Amino acid sequence: MRKYTQDDLSHRFAELGFLWPQNHLIGVRSIDDKGDAYDDQFYWIENGLLFNSYSGTTNPGSYYLQEFLNKAMGGTAIMATNQQMISGFVKGLHKERVAWRQYRPMRIFRDADKDLKSEEVGLPFIGMYGIHIHAMFRSKKSERIFNWSAACQGMNDPIEWAQFIDRSYLKCDRFLSYTLLSEF
Questions:
Q1: C-beta neighbour count of 47 within 10 angstroms
Q2: pTM of the model
């Protein structure tokens, strides 16, 4: 996936009719969607300007694409792209680690074909799913998603995560706005 500039991102926001908050996170999902690979990008916007980009995933790992977290729901949750969640996440913990927790309803799809791809097919669902933004590692850079994500958004490099979480917690009073785009 190519790296996007602030102009690229702000033009895409304008095309979609999205707001450009002073401090917010943007995820861009790769069209390639390589199974269990950290092939997506995150962009931290601080004081209205592109501050940094980070590697990570916006997809569930192979474990949850094949072993559904809740079989009764009909497949693994896939956060829908090209949606914006203003103040959609709140400061909190994920598995006893600092994270941004889902606070507002979001649009998802359910993927049930177990082919290791995160497809947005069928009718979307809107609701609360416990989809958070968190680190995808314990103490070193994670190279494979596997069971680090059941639908969460996350960064795989501890240095990048530490920078993002420190700055976002400092700049965002209580809530974080997040926009997930499809690669464009």
A1: 8
A2: 0.96
